[in-house]
């Protein structure tokens, strides 16, 4: 049995190495599990990894105060994050308290140190980001080291308080208690906030985009996201991100150019055919109803649409009913919404297109290309998902992103469903909060899914059984994308 002095020494040594090493040393000292949770970034460190969800639940319960913690679990706020400690049954209360207090103190020291060096790190980020956006990749690599082959650009409106927005985004992407090598650079550039997300791995891009989406929503700011590009094309990506933000139908959050890159449906359909199909599909709508429909599909609620357009909720519902009648389509269906989102984002038709209406398929945009081309595209987008993931995403998209409905349909806990969707987002390197991305995912999964890939066919791992309840019925005009990961 280690003495108290030896325990403290091991914790200090861990803190000197990294935040992860400190949390690992704390978990070993209490013979249990320890998790560090950031309110924006989520779980920063977990030892063991399997305790991450339990730590996140404990941190949320402590924040709400009305919920009681599991017996023996301690939550302590330090440096803006929550330290969650669950000692083993053989650990005394005295030892657990010593480890908790010491770990909290060391985290505070690490956070103070991070605060001290943050101005210098911000200056380095600004210098490297400016060089990259100006095409000086060789000079940028001398500042931040070896660079990856690709990156994407997020362009955020800094607003009237740019320094405050800069700090908020910095803390969201690079929490004080961690010191990751970039997958991201954060800087003020041309009056906006530039976040260059380096593609160290597919999961890095998805994680950073989710953190940025949360920060943008909390700060009430709007941002545009470019497609992934090579480093020598970052200047064009900066412009693309600006266009995505300007074209957005929401007043906060992230608007994606597509986020799909070469996997976008627009890459397999000739632009003239896509434009003609979209023009024919949307022809029954006047500009007023088209704008209302576009805003509703992107912002995710009738009330949000009413606020953006400056009209009443009954007026929004009336326009949507009128649009549905004019299109002869059921706007409550996920496939209808996906097709309309693709059509609304298609390039506008230009003079000179000679495509008879008889040659324009009246159904999904994938009918504009041969079946084998559509299937190849769908496999590139969702082919890496296993059966359980594909069924989960399919049911989630069919139910317009409603976690409660999907959890009942699949017989899963909502926390499990959210974790699975986060894993899918990381695996595909996509931000599932983007309506455009969800639309293309839906079309891709429907293209490759077999008739038996339903909620009832979800594999049950480890022999575990789940209670099953039928999903509730859909409303006449449900708000799309009510619950996002």
Automatic annotation (TrEMBL):
Task: List where this protein forms a coiled coil.
Answer: none
Can you name the source organism? Answer: Streptomyces halstedii
Q: Mind telling me which Gene3D superfamilies this protein's record contains?
A: PucR C-terminal helix-turn-helix domain (1.10.10.2840)
* Name by which UniProt lists this protein: Helix-turn-helix domain-containing protein
**Residue stretches making up the CdaR GGDEF-like domain:** 150-244
Quote the PANTHER family the UniProt record gives: CARBOHYDRATE DIACID REGULATOR (PTHR33744), DNA-BINDING TRANSCRIPTIONAL ACTIVATOR ADER (PTHR33744:SF1)
Any Pfam family hit: GGDEF_2
Similarity remark: Belongs to the CdaR family.
- Which stretches of sequence are listed as region Disordered? 454-485
InterPro entries, sorted: CdaR-like_regulators (IPR051448), CdaR_GGDEF (IPR041522), PucR_C-HTH_dom (IPR025736), PucR_C-HTH_sf (IPR042070)
Q: Where is the PucR C-terminal helix-turn-helix domain?
A: 291-346, 392-446
């Amino acid at each position: 049995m280690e003495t108290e002095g030896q325990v403290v020494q091991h914790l200090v040594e861990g803190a000197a190495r990294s935040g992860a090493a400190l949390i690992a040393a704390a978990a070993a000292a209490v013979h249990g599990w320890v998790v560090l949770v950031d309110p924006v970034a989520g779980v920063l460190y977990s030892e063991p990894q399997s305790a991450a969800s339990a730590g996140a639940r404990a941190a949320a319960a402590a924040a709400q105060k009305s919920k009681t913690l599991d017996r023996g679990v301690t939550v302590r706020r330090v440096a803006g994050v929550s330290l969650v400690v669950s000692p083993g049954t053989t650990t005394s209360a005295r030892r657990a308290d010593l480890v908790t207090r010491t770990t909290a103190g060391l985290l505070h020291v690490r956070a103070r140190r991070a605060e001290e060096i943050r101005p210098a790190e911000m200056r380095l980020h600004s210098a490297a980001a400016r060089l990259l956006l100006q095409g000086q990749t060789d000079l940028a690599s001398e500042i931040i080291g070896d660079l990856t082959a690709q990156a994407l650009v997020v362009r955020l409106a800094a607003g009237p308080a740019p320094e405050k927005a800069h700090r908020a985004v910095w803390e969201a992407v690079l929490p004080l208690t961690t010191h990751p090598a970039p997958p991201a650079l954060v800087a003020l550039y041309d009056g906006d906030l530039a976040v260059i997300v380096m593609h160290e791995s597919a999961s890095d891009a998805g994680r950073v985009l989710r953190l940025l989406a949360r920060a943008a929503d909390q700060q009430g700011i709007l941002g545009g996201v470019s497609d992934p590009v090579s480093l020598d094309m970052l200047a064009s990506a900066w412009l693309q991100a600006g266009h995505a933000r300007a074209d957005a139908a929401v007043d906060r959050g992230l608007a994606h150019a597509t986020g799909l890159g070469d996997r976008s449906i627009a890459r397999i359909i000739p632009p003239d055919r896509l434009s003609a199909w979209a023009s024919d599909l949307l022809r029954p709508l006047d500009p007023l109803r088209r704008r209302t429909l576009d805003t509703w599909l992107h912002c995710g609620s009738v009330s949000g649409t009413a606020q953006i357009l400056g009209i009443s909720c009954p007026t929004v519902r009336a326009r949507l009913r009128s649009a549905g009648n004019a299109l002869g389509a059921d706007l409550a269906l996920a496939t209808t919404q996906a097709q309309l989102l693709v059509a609304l984002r298609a390039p506008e038709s230009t003079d000179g297109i000679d495509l008879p209406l008889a040659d324009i398929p009246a159904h999904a945009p994938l009918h504009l290309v041969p079946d084998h081309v559509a299937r190849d595209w769908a496999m590139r987008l969702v082919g890496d998902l296993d059966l359980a993931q594909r069924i989960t995403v399919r049911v989630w998209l069919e139910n317009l992103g409603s976690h409660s409905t999907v959890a009942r349909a699949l017989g899963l806990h909502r926390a499990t469903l959210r974790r699975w969707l986060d894993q899918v987002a990381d695996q595909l390197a996509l931000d599932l909060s983007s309506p455009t991305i969800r639309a293309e995912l839906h079309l891709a999964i429907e293209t490759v899914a077999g008739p038996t890939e339903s909620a009832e066919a979800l594999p049950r791992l480890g022999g575990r059984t789940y209670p099953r309840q039928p999903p509730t019925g859909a409303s006449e005009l449900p708000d799309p994308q009510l619950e996002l990961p």
